[in-house]
Amino acid sequence: MSENTSEEDLITLASYPRAIAHIDCDAFFASCEQAKDPALKGRPLVTGKERGIIACASYEAKARGVTRGLRLSEARSRCPELVVLPSDYETYSIYSERVFAIIRRFTPEVEEFSIDEAYADLTGLRRLYRASYEKIARDIQEAVHHELGITVSVGLSLTKTLAKICSKHKKPNGLTAVPGYALHEFLRPLPLEKVCGFGPNTVALLNKYGVRTIREYVERPSSFAQRALGKIGIDLWRELRGIPSYPIVSRKKEKQLSLGRTKTFSPASGVRAIVKAHLMRNLESAFIALRRNSLSARSLTVYLRTRDFHDIAMTGELDRHSAATLDFTRLCGEVFERLFREGCCYRSTGVILSEITAQGVDALTLFDDPAVVKKISDISCAVDLINKRYGKYAVHLASTGPAIVAGSATSPRNEETWRKRTVLKGETRRRRLGLPLLKSGNRV
Questions:
Q1: CA-CA distance, 284 to 300, in Å (whole number)?
Q2: Domain limit, last residue, from 129, 145, 167
Q3: What pLDDT is attached to residue 69?
Q4: Is residue 117 among the annotated active site residues?
Q5: 85, 184, 185, 442: least buried by Cβ within 10 Å?
């Protein structure tokens, strides 16, 4: 404790009553591309060619003013030597699984927060590893870099919220460890925007009360947090003071709450038939995944995104659950007609299926014809069998025809990833080995 610090300034005297680490991969998609192809290391690189906007930018690209969400044309004007690649989500998923597997070698309590983020509970492991919590976190960081060739930033503190703030503090390849007795100094200068859970409106509200930093927020009484922001306010107030409100959830989710499919198309279009065709294509794709996992849905959300990135959405539902695409095509079309605006140009469409349950428990309503319901279900099963043999969308909805024409393989936006074009012996385009192929020059 410094001479200028009194006990009243301290948030807590504890060091690590709990040690929570947040592991955040640095520019994950771009890092995976550079890891599998050494020739790309050190070069400004972005992914997202298939969308027309930047999905992820390497730190070399960020240094030249290229950021996520930027249009490719603007990105190339800022950085003419930019390397632009289509997103290879198959490879990114493999790298993600391997990152999580490395973390689980150190502790079984790991929560997979997203494809490139995880929380790990290190509490009590100092005796096992004969090392400090900071050393254990450093070992995780070095193991990921040594084995996968990508870097991660690690935050270590008392709660999940604090750990996430710490991991963002020094990027890339940073490690920030803040024990409880140092929280008062660490949080003093940090703005409210650093807290995951404080959006622009929340920050504006707290600013009106004269609260501008995280330290000023946690110095207010809990009653202030409760009155101003409700439950999330008091939960974050506790988390920021080192009192856990959000546990590590290491188990897999037992129930899938929703399933969605979205696609950006180019060029943007205001033609009703083309926009609807892309939407129906997403509907087909979502139901293929639904049936593959033996699930059925009842609720459908349709959303459209305009060329200037304004979203509009609407939800509809059936009287029963179903896994048949044809049961939802009419509903999807009706919702689309209510959303679509003439004279407006759209760049992407999407569907989200919700109220999901296990397939086979569907209950017919009084007005359903069992024979018709069975016939529609049998059609979906027959389409799945044909497509499995002859390729996805060998049989498809007639309304998706304009999307197929607009999405011709001659379009540069439909360029396949290098891994997708490189098929190993025994693989097919749909059934693949979980291996990211590394490149050396022009050879596999």
A1: 13
A2: 167
A3: 82
A4: yes
A5: 442
